[in-house]
């Protein structure tokens, strides 16, 4: 059986630690990302109070009447801002859409930022003013935590510590608040309908705020499913396809899914909040030369982050 190495790492030991502690953190995250693609992170800068307030607002959002939520669904935005209703996103290679609805929030930029024109504006939930302020705070805190994690990863890769800094500054990151809705009649579902079909994330890294219920699983190297559980308010952090591509598969974008609960619990909602950390669209994802050698031939064509994102949004049905 292959080992499933999901270490629990303290981000504060990287941000404020000694040189030795920083090195230990970099080594541990790099090793886990090389083997399993997942870690859990404590001391990430989001308090329990903030996370509790976030979930309160997320629950209130999805409890709004269907016709209210649908006012915030704009097909031209390909799900990247505002609401995406039930039966819209289908994992790559699946025929049946995931059993979920979600709301996405993008970058917050000063008016004079050059990237401002290239991102759609965020949508404000008029009915829930606190939803807007709390998700903005969460977005900024997760972005800050993600920047520190990328520094630790850069060191592991033998790059300068600040390698990713300017690439993710004002980047195209997305905070997704997710509702896996209740199913009152499981018999009515197609056989292969699941909360989230097996997939890999598109972005550099994903920071997931502990879900309200079990269900997240990762696919191990020997092709078995392994449950991912986070302790308390820990974040689950995993590698996405952009980082896997950049590192020519040295870091693994591990396949994961969200399984349905036992039948009698299908009537209960599940909520979760992933933050997909994206770079600016101009970032070059060409495999790093240091990751290519005789045993590791170059596996991917050169592409920018923006081109790659477009390709992937088409595949999952969000972009036409
Ligand atoms: O809901 C979860 O626990 C994970 C969600 C996920 O993998 C995704 O939205 O990409
Ligand atoms: Fe995912």
General shape: globular
What gap, in angstroms, lies between the N and C termini?
42 Å
CATH-level-2 architecture = Sandwich
What name is given to the CATH topology?
Jelly Rolls
Radius of gyration: 19 Å
Q: Summarize the biggest pleated sheet.
A: 8 strands, mixed
What is the count of distinct domains? 1
The CATH class designation is: Mainly Beta
What is the string of SSEs from the N terminus onward?
EHHEHHEEHHEEEEEEHEEH
Q: Helix count, per DSSP?
A: 8
Q: What fraction of the residues are assigned to beta strands by DSSP? A: 15-25%
Average per-residue pLDDT, rounded, comes to 94
Weakly predicted, low-confidence segments: none
Helix content: 25-40%
- Per CATH, the superfamily is B-lactam Antibiotic, Isopenicillin N Synthase, Chain
Widest β-sheet, arrangement of strands = 1-2-10-7-12-5-4-3
- The assigned structural class equals alpha+beta
Total number of strands:
12
Distinct ligand kinds:
2-oxoglutaric acid, fe (ii) ion
Q: In words, what does this structure look like?
A:
The chain is 28% helix and 17% strand. With 320 residues, the protein is α+β, with helices and mostly antiparallel strands. The protein has one domain (8-316): Jelly Rolls, CATH 2.60.120.330. It has an eight-stranded mixed sheet. Strands 6-11-8-9 form a four-stranded antiparallel sheet, with no helix packed on it. Helix 2 packs across helix 5 and helix 3 crosses helix 5 (129-156). The longest helix has 28 residues, at 129-156. It starts with 7 loop residues before the first strand and ends in a 5-residue tail after the last helix. The model has no long low-confidence stretch (mean pLDDT 94). Fe (ii) ion binds at residues 199, 201, 256. Keywords: Ethylene biosynthesis, Iron, Metal-binding, Oxidoreductase. Its EC number is 1.13.12.19, 1.14.20.7.
